[in-house]
Write a structure and sequence with these properties.
The structure holds 2 protein chains of 2 kinds. Chain A has helices at about 35-45, 90-100, 120-130, 145-150, 155-165, 180-185, 205-215, 225-235, 240-280, 285-305, 305-320, 325-335, 345-350, 355-360, 370-380, 385-400, 410-435, 460-490, 505-520, 525-535, 540-550, 560-570, 570-585, 590-600, 600-630, and strands at about 25-30, 50, 60-65, 70-75, 110-115, 135-140, 165-170, 405, 410, 445-450. Chain A is of the alpha/beta class. Chain A has a 7-stranded mixed beta sheet with strand order 2-3-4-1-5-6-7, sandwiched between helices. In chain A, strands 8-9 form a two-stranded antiparallel sheet. The relative contact order of chain B is 0.26. Classes of the chains: A alpha/beta, B alpha+beta.
Chain lengths: ~625, ~100
């Protein structure tokens, strides 16, 4: 993360280290729940970019501020840490950056340490460790407004004397005292002042030191926020708690399903129409097909996810920033622990019922890396909305609708419900298997801080949306686009007399024939094989592919397609197809997002292989067992 | 510490006057005396404020009694029973009337 380059005009003074008038790189450090991010957003006025540190999943923001002379200073926002012992990945990253050992990141010349003034004793422990590094440090005691409102106090000058660093009382939400940062930027000294901190080894020693320093600085802890206590007595109540939780969960689910889905559909329609119009303006032929069916469709398959992703992050952002997410985790924990997971996995897994893509991006709220990976790995087993059209078509083709429980439940609905349960059970089984083997996290049990309730701020919600949206478009979008283009090429080559071939003569059909021996034991022929390949773009694409292969329009002549399917598949083969779709990771968008979120190809490849093998075995078993009874 | 971690589970209940955090009822307070946990877990808890010598209170219980929320020095933390049975405490004094 190098400093931004300045153009060759002589507007900006040259950055010369020997001038030493201003810092150039400053690390922002602070414990979780200290308001560090809000402060960072305020300081940088949202001028920032996201990046991953090399080799780790930890993400960081770099923002820019101008000092009094108008020179640009880079602020590196480090992950929230409680201490500087390299036990977790976050802490290791923080130490590496602060000591200049992080490749690609210059050693910061100064540190801004953000502490929560309403919880000073805990947070001073981190201060001792940061100041001991010997880098010039500005200590910001955040949440000054809350401290005062709840009757707390601290003598800033006395604390500055105790710590040997400048100290300022600020409020990131109101902007009070933030001017201290400007003063600090221009106060660069030749080197850090020698600090006299007590030599204390143990955490207990640090804590005792912190209490002593706090006492010397006249620190009075504010009363526990009354609203937090009142709300918690409802939200964590033994009967009301779960009821509120259920309402919130249904709200989240409804938002992404009932609001997000129509928005996505609307966007899809818009993209289809514009694509068709674009095609009208181009001469018919290869180029038109490439633009409309390759590039435009590829772009579309990326864009249609955006409404759902943004909505989900808006809802989760509100839950997280308000503090309710931690309470929801406590409520869900008991149930989730049966699957070897903890309460923090609940909301992401719930979101996966709409779509695995935003769900996997939502796992960022899970701090424990192993739990996070486990949640990412099981999320695609949840029955997402793209599976529904496939289920509906196959069930409608093979299962006559008869009432099972009067008007409430028919055979078809029952079959659908069964597929939901099947996916869920597979997710639980996989989670248990992962958590008892490769992703065992004995050293990271469920320990969750309950922050006080706060109003979410618009800027941090907005920034989160922009962040997630961008991350998805840039990193996942490129992979999805690439695969879309490959699929387009596979269906449009080899050409005959300059014309694209009929689907049955294309490369994709050749591949379909090639994999036929492999999928034959599942009761699938090469046409289903082609459908399995094209459904990588999105699961429901298999319907239109089969339509093309059978020469029927899948949308207007659904019953014709169902009849064609009955010719092609035995009932046992149909069950196998449903089971295959329930388990297989037939979705390159999910693969792309997993690659992005785990920062490498290892997990997505593992996950894809596991899910495909599981789908194959289960479909094989289903085909043979059902085939034994139904002919 | 490592020794404690490996053999901690088998250790007999300490003599009277000390018990585990998990044994406290909601609303009760006690003084933390020892964290018989793996070093990284104990370290993390201490960073959150669970330092031996400080007073800890069982603030409330999640539905079903687990996890529960504990308060120490102004910080509120939710933990499961599987952890709090390894956190030793000393009672400040028997509560006058039940709870």
């Amino acid at each position: 993360m190098g400093a931004p380059t300045v153009s060759c005009h002589a507007v900006a003074p040259p950055r010369d280290e020997s001038l030493g008038a201003s810092y150039r790189t400053i690390a922002v450090v602070g414990p979780p729940n200290s308001g560090k991010t809000t402060l960072f957003n305020r300081l940088t006025k949202l001028r920032q970019k996201v990046g991953n540190f090399p080799g780790v999943t930890v993400e960081h923001h770099t923002g820019y501020v101008r000092d009094r002379d108008g020179k640009e200073v880079a602020l590196i926002d480090l992950p929230g840490v409680y201490s500087l012992t390299p036990k977790s990945e976050d802490e290791k990253v923080a130490i590496d950056v602060l000591t200049g050992q992080m490749p690609g990141t210059p050693r910061p010349d100064a540190v801004i340490l953000v502490l929560n003034s309403t919880n000073l004793h805990s947070h001073l422990v981190l201060a001792a460790r940061v100041i001991a590094l010997g880098i010039p440090t500005l200590v910001l005691l955040n949440m000054a407004d809350e401290l005062r409102k709840q009757g707390g106090q601290v003598d800033v000058l006395a604390l500055a004397r105790e710590l040997g660093t400048p100290v300022a009382l600020v409020s990131a939400t109101t902007g009070e005292g933030v001017v201290a940062v400007q003063n600090f930027l221009s106060s660069a000294t030749a080197g850090p002042e020698p600090l006299e901190l007590p030599v204390v080894g143990s955490t207990r020693g640090y804590r005792e030191w912190a209490v002593r320093v706090g006492t010397n600085a006249n620190y009075r802890r504010p009363a526990a926020p009354i609203w937090t206590q009142r709300l918690d007595s409802i939200f964590l109540h033994r009967t009301w708690g779960p009821i509120v939780f259920a309402v919130v969960v249904i709200g989240v689910f409804q938002t992404i399903f009932a609001v997000g889905q129509p928005l996505s559909n609307l966007l899809q329609k818009f993209l289809d129409v514009t694509g068709a119009q674009l095609g009208n303006h181009l001469p018919a032929g290869m180029f038109q097909s490439l633009i409309v069916n390759g590039v435009w469709k590829g772009t579309g398959s990326v864009l249609v996810f955006l409404p759902q992703i943004l909505l989900l992050f808006l809802v989760i952002g509100i839950l997280e920033d308000s503090g309710y997410l931690s309470r929801a985790a406590v409520i869900a924990d008991k149930t989730m622990s049966r699957a070897g997971l903890n309460g923090k996995s609940f909301i992401p897994l719930l979101s996966a019922y709409a779509c695995a893509v935003p769900a996997i991006m939502a796992t960022r709220t899970i701090e424990n890396k192993r739990d996070r990976i486990a949640t990412i790995l099981i999320a695609p087993f949840m029955t997402c909305s793209a599976r529904l059209p496939v289920y509906t078509m196959v069930i409608a083709a093979f299962l006559p609708d008869r009432p099972v429980l009067g008007v409430f439940l028919g055979t078809r609905a029952l079959a659908m419900l069964g597929l939901y349960v099947l996916g869920f059970l597979m997710a639980v089984a996989t989670a248990r298997m992962l958590k008892s083997t490769v992703l065992k996290s004995k050293d990271a049990p469920f320990i969750l801080e309950m922050p006080p309730y706060r109003w979410p701020t618009l800027s941090s919600l907005g920034l989160r949306l922009v962040d997630r949206g961008k991350a998805f478009l840039y990193r996942a979008g490129t992979v999805i686009m690439l695969v879309s283009l490959l699929l387009w090429a596979a269906t449009n080559f080899p050409m005959h007399h300059g014309q694209p071939p009929a689907v049955q003569d294309s490369v994709v059909a050749t591949v379909g024939h090639a994999i036929e021996p492999v999928i034959r034991p599942l009761g699938f022929d090469w046409k289903i094989g082609v459908g399995l390949i094209t459904s990588m773009a999105a699961r429901e694409v298999i319907i239109s592919t089969l339509g093309t292969l059978h020469g029927v329009d899948a949308q207007s002549h659904a019953t014709d397609l169902q009849a064609a399917l009955r010719q092609e598949l035995t009932p046992a083969g149909a069950v196998a197809l449903l089971v295959f779709f329930a388990f297989a990771m037939q979705c390159m968008s999910t693969v792309a997002v997993v690659r992005r979120e785990t920062n490498g190809w290892k997990w997505p490849i593992l996950q894809f292989s596991y899910m495909t093998v599981a789908a194959y075995i289960a479909a094989f078993a289903a085909y043979n067992i059902v085939g034994h009874f139904v002919r | 510490m490592i020794f404690n971690f490996i053999f901690g589970r088998r250790k007999k209940q300490p003599p009277t006057g000390a018990s585990a955090l998990a044994d406290l009822r909601v609303g009760e307070s006690a003084i933390l005396s020892d964290l018989e946990l793996a070093p990284p877990v104990a370290e993390h808890l201490m960073n959150l404020g669970f330092v031996p010598g400080l007073e800890v209170q069982v603030l409330r219980s999640g539905p079903g009694g687990d996890p529960r929320v504990y308060r120490v020095d102004g910080t509120e933390v939710a933990m499961r029973r599987d952890l709090t049975r390894h956190i030793r405490i000393e009672l400040i004094g028997a509560p006058a009337f039940g709870d």
